[in-house]
Design a protein that fits this description.
The complex is a heterodimer of chains A (about 325) and B (about 450). Chain A is α/β, with parallel strands linked by helices. Chain A has 3 domains: about 130 residues, P-loop containing nucleotide triphosphate hydrolases (Rossmann fold), CATH 3.40.50.300; about 45 residues, no CATH class; about 100 residues. Helix content of chain A is about 55%, strand content about 10%. Chain A is built from 16 helices and 9 strands. In chain A, the strands form 3 sheets. Chain A has a 5-stranded parallel beta sheet with strand order 2-5-8-1-9, sandwiched between helices. Chain A has a two-stranded antiparallel sheet with strand order 3-4. In chain A, strand 6 and strand 7 form a beta hairpin. In chain A, helix 11 crosses helix 12 and helix 11 crosses helix 13. The radius of gyration of chain A is 26 Å and the shape is elongated. Chain B has 3 domains: about 210 residues, no CATH class; about 30 residues, no CATH class; about 170 residues, von Willebrand factor, type A domain (Rossmann fold, 3-Layer(aba) Sandwich). Chain B contains 20 helices and 6 strands. Chain B has a 6-stranded mixed beta sheet with strand order 3-2-1-4-5-6, sandwiched between helices. In chain B, strand 4, helix 18 and strand 5 form a beta-alpha-beta unit. In chain B, helix 3 packs across helix 4, helix 9 runs antiparallel to helix 10 and helix 12 packs parallel to helix 14. Chain B is elongated, with a radius of gyration of 33 Å. Chain B starts with a helix and ends with a helix. Chains A and B meet through helix 1, helix 2, helix 5, helix 10 and strand 9 of A and helix 2, helix 3 and helix 12 of B.
């Protein structure tokens, strides 16, 4: 136990929040705590939450906060080691063998019989399987990064079960085995973020190894700060109206509720249109920025005027 | 501190939050890093390390608030406003007490007596905490243990000495009237304090024990004997089971996605490598979709289990994509479309209303089934029959079933009666069993779980 460390924990967390907000990412306390823990415990963070609350953005912000490169791996069904970890540069290997074909006969000169030729070849066999010919993919890049890196494994829920299991070694020990070369250990432990939209349940084994951060939709206050930082041109009163409107909209039964990113888009739209105050007609004509399903837009239509009135009243 | 953390984790587990050993170690490491100074930081950090789903987080928050809800200690320790801190202080101090006394945890009579006499709340709280630890209060499981634990804690704190003192004082009442009164009041107060602590602990560790126990029992109870009031829990259980199976099923389906090597396309793609095969192309084979024809008996003889059989039928239609569901007592009808349209409770009620409670006629039901489905049945079809095979001494329909069996991949029969009842009275299980690949008793959720798992696995 390090008592000095303990004293600073709250301070560190506040520092992280500060750092985030100066780079334009408004973080709640729990987000800052998770980032702090990830650094202190050297554990990956599994970030869950509805789409568009800034899960991916968190990795970006951490990257600029810690001034380390962001390495991103987008997951999808069928993603395998060759795409995620490393691949041999087949083309280059082939090209080299073609170029070196003539050299080959020089090498083989004087070799008697097949056995001797093969023995000669064996002296060179590692030439084509060393790091020169290795194409590092995101995971290996993150381990090789000299100053450490932020590794973002995005939408892990989209990948297959097998890939999830494959990640366990990496996330536990920050090392990976490559048969031809051996075990590669991280030079500096990277900060790892995994994000999930919960399209399927993440395995317990993976969850156990991670710090689990759930980012919900922000409350009104936090969302206002986010808008303030992202769209500074928006006037305060309009910002309040807009946030109240979106917060109320989220209460309705919708196919897809508007996320923070959509609120930001809407705010930008309003700035672009030089709007001073919300009104029903305006909301109706710009609603497609917030809602992405025709069904939702039609369902909300009846409530628009009351929602707008409520929003204006709140401001 | 480790003791408090492990008690807390015990409480979390009791509240149905799954905490593994690895995670408890993480929690200890977390506390090492962040300390205890700030309650909300501790809460947030622990919730990230220990609770890993949304529901778990909610439960965690409740449990945390309840566990660390010790009221502020009046008197000597009242300066500390931080509940966690005061708890850890208590823990530390009591540890010292033990070593000083050199005798596990029993404060001297003087300790308890003087603490009562001086109304030293701090000392009392400490003594209570120590006693709670000594009698392993977190082990409390059910409310009937409440009295026992209160008594044990009081004894541990040395209540006997106080009783003796009261007795002594009562005999010489004249001289010590006021003191006696005070001591009695103090003892009553102590009793209240202790029972409060016990109640709180009980809430913490047993709040969830009942539902858990109940679910466990329901899992094993024969379907026929489950009472109407448990129907709701049962429904949830079946639903949970179905959900788990769907998840397993989805996983298997994904695995079977990878196909055979597509030689033609592989060669074409590798032309750029001088015809050397570096990249492989796989044939994405089309999955053979399993087909299931499920038939459920809802007649009078299986009246008390028909609801559950239908519940089961309904969950199968949710799990496996291509299911045709049928219900009958004498005439047989297809309910697939209705199952897809209505939520489970309504669908079950509607089916019972349309087909239920008649007298069984397996003969005509099987004939109907043959007529309706035989064209659709092929080597990929699993036929599943839920029923007791009691045909009122009429035609059991074994010939029709045999014709179905010849075409289908396999025929499974699930009988809600115990095996010893088969072939007694009007049960024609033996005749019908010949036309089945497997006949299984299906008497409780346990059975259901096993069988559905098997169907989902082999239906692929």
């Amino acid at each position: 136990m390090n008592p000095k460390n303990k004293k600073d924990a709250a301070g560190h967390i506040a520092d992280i929040r500060e750092g985030f907000s100066s780079s334009g990412y408004i973080a709640s306390k729990s987000i800052a705590t998770a980032v702090y823990l990830a650094k202190a415990l050297r554990k990956p963070v599994l970030v869950e939450g509805p789409p568009g609350v800034g899960k991916t953005e968190l990795a970006n912000a951490t990257s600029s906060l810690l001034d380390k490169p962001l390495i991103r791996l987008q997951c999808y069904e069928g993603l395998d080691e060759a795409k995620a970890l490393y691949e041999w540069k087949y083309g280059k290997q082939l090209l080299y063998t073609q170029v070196l074909k003539e050299k080959l006969s020089d090498l083989m000169a004087g070799a008697k019989g097949l056995r001797q030729s093969i023995e000669r070849l064996h002296e060179f066999d590692d030439t084509f399987f060393n790091e020169e010919f290795l194409e590092p993919r995101p995971l290996l890049k993150a381990l090789w990064a000299d100053r450490g890196a932020i590794l973002l494994i995005d939408e892990i829920d989209k990948s297959d079960q097998e890939f999830e299991a494959f990640l366990l070694e990496l996330l536990q020990d920050y090392q990976i085995s490559i048969p031809e070369i051996g075990t590669v250990k991280a030079k500096t432990t990277p900060v790892v973020f995994l994000t999930s939209n919960n399209t399927r349940e993440i395995g317990d084994a993976l969850k156990r190894r991670c710090i689990h951060l759930y980012i919900p939709f922000p409350d009104s206050k936090l969302e206002q700060r986010i808008i303030e930082s992202r769209v500074p041109d928006l006037e305060t009163s309009l910002r309040l109206q807009l946030v109240t409107f979106v917060q109320n909209l989220r209460e309705l039964d919708l196919k897809k509720v508007p996320a923070v990113s959509e609120t930001i888009d809407w705010a930008r739209t309003l700035v672009l249109l030089h709007i001073k105050e919300l009104d029903t007609e305006l909301v109706r004509s710009t609603l497609n920025v917030l809602l992405k399903f025709q069904d939702d837009i039609e369902n909300v239509d009846a409530e628009l005027s009351s929602l707008t009135r409520k929003a204006i009243k709140a401001a | 501190m480790t003791q408090i953390l492990s008690d807390f984790i015990l409480a979390l587990r009791a509240a149905d939050v799954r905490v593994s050993t690895a995670e408890s170690i993480d929690a200890a490491a977390t506390l090492d890093v962040i300390g205890f100074e700030q309650r909300d930081v501790v809460k947030e950090a622990l919730s990230q390390v220990l609770a890993k789903t949304d529901e778990d987080k909610t439960r965690f928050r409740q449990c945390f608030d309840r566990f660390f809800a010790f009221e502020h200690v009046e008197g000597t320790l009242s300066e500390s406003n931080n509940p966690i801190e005061s708890v850890s202080k208590n823990a530390d101090n009591s540890g010292e007490d033990k070593s000083e006394l050199g005798y596990i945890g029993t404060p001297t009579d003087k300790g308890l007596l003087s603490a009562l006499g001086d109304a030293d709340a701090g000392a009392l709280q400490q003594a209570i905490a120590t006693a709670a630890r000594n009698v392993r209060l977190p082990n409390i499981r059910i409310f009937t243990q409440r009295g026992m634990y209160i008594r044990r804690m009081l004894e541990d704190m040395g209540i006997d000495e106080v009783d003796d003192k009261i007795f002594e004082l009562a005999r010489s009442e004249k001289t010590y009237g006021k003191e006696l009164q005070q001591l009695r009041e103090a003892k009553a107060r102590l009793f209240e304090l202790v029972s409060e602590v016990v109640d709180r602990q009980m809430l913490l560790y047993t709040a969830n024990a009942w539902p858990q126990l109940r679910e466990e029992i329901l899992h094993k109870t024969p379907l026929a004997r489950i009472e109407a009031r448990d129907f709701k829990i049962m429904q949830e259980l079946v639903y949970k089971l179905a959900k788990r199976l769907v998840a397993m099923h989805a996983r298997r389906r994904r695995v079977s996605r990878r196909g055979h090597l597509d030689v033609r396309r592989t060669i074409r793609r590798n032309i750029k490598y001088d015809g050397l095969l570096f990249e492989t192309v796989w044939k994405k084979i089309r999955i053979e979709r399993p087909k299931v024809v499920a038939v459920c008996d809802v007649s009078g003889s299986v009246e008390n289990v028909a609801g559950f059989l239908l519940l089961f039928l309904y969950s199968i239609t949710e799990i496996i994509p291509k299911v045709r569901a049928f219900a009958f007592s004498s005439r047989l009808g297809e309910v697939t479309e209705m199952f897809n349209r209505l939520p489970v409770a309504e669908a079950v009620a509607q089916t019972l209303h349309d087909y239920g409670h008649g007298s069984t006629d397996y003969g005509s039901a099987m004939a109907d089934l043959e007529q309706l489905t035989l064209e659709d049945i092929d080597h990929r079809t699993t036929v599943l029959v839920l029923g007791d095979a009691r045909s009122n001494y009429g035609d059991p329909g074994d010939h029709a079933l045999r014709r179905i069996h010849e075409r289908a991949r396999r025929v499974l029969w699930l009988n809600p009666e115990p095996k010893s009842f088969w072939n007694t009275g009007d049960s024609a299980m033996r005749k019908l069993a010949v036309a089945c690949d497997r006949v299984e008793p299906c008497r409780s959720l346990r059975h259901l779980e096993r069988i559905v798992g098997e169907i989902a696995r082999t239906a692929l």
